[in-house]
């Protein structure tokens, strides 16, 4: 049972193009339990989940955010290679949508309440940022959280002078371990709001704090997270999020119908797929005929029957067939087959054009990016140098073995000569780098130069260390 007497949080998981699921959840919470959004102490988000979290924290329009998601999906699907096409730039589309839909004081509303999960490039550690000085800084943090390496580009964006990448790499569901955090994920698992699959497979995968059950439904959802489906399937995913959120509210007795709803009134709003009831006059009959002529049955009503009317309208417009002769011809089967056959010829030209366009857009950021690349190259070179130096021989004694022995000098040597030899041996020993700090003084039996039992014990002046290389033994 969810405890409303304590402080609670919301946490949205990263999910790629399945962020439309979060739109359905947000619309349900706004309609059925708006106090859960207004009273949440923190709203966490990673990757695509950070976009939904910023929408709720900054009080942006849910319908406009849904339009942005559909726009990104349609832009990816209109190319032969989908989101892998060189001309597809998701960060540019996301930036334009955020600049258009977020209010001017979004950073003020989000500071201290919106928590964005980021992954620092330098050490791969997770960082949660919640303070934003301007709207541009807020947008930059969201772009960093959505940047998937190679998929979105090669040079990661920066936030407050530090390079970050997708927050889902290090923590895809921030603060999910807290008891009073409502976790939201489009993958079936142990999250509070998530799909309920009928599969009896109880195997579970933990991906950076996100619970994902190993079944075919989640495999299908994972493929759609990377390669977006058609708008009709996106509408089904959005309604699934609405129903899952409604089920969570009912199971935890969180439905407060007496609270004012933030969403549109379904009884007063009209859907673009249904003609408006008119008076039975002659003019009304003509208007009804015109509406029937323009009416489009592009989306089944049962697919979006639970969604707010404004969200329905977004999906209805997305499912409409594009007008115009070019759009109709391009959708023909023969034309599409021909476009795929000509792809080896057209792809290099389109790629060159896209690269040139990105270079022109990259010019203002070249100095900062080049400094970062130079720093990365220096760090890599320094690391390789340290590894090579650490793997080199530590001293010159690796080829030969050192042995120290204590023996009496030959009887024919004079005391002065012995002192000179000991003095020279001491210098030779101090010039070498030995592996150990202490000398193991061998006994007379184990000594290389064994002494006679009749020989008197040597005095301190007669003890001399001599260094022999193994090749001289």
TrEMBL record:
GO biological process: lipid homeostasis; positive regulation of triglyceride catabolic process; triglyceride catabolic process
Keywords: Hydrolase, Lipid degradation, Lipid metabolism
E.C. number: 3.1.1.3
Gene Ontology MF terms in the entry: triacylglycerol lipase activity
Keyword Transmembrane helix: no
Motif (GXGXXG): 14-19
UniProt domain PNPLA: residue ranges: 10-179
Enzyme class: hydrolase
Cellular component per GO, a single term: lipid droplet
Annotated active site: 47, 166
Motif GXSXG per UniProt: ranges: 45-49
Protein name in UniProt: triacylglycerol lipase
Upper classification of the organism: Eukaryota, Metazoa, Chordata, Craniata, Vertebrata
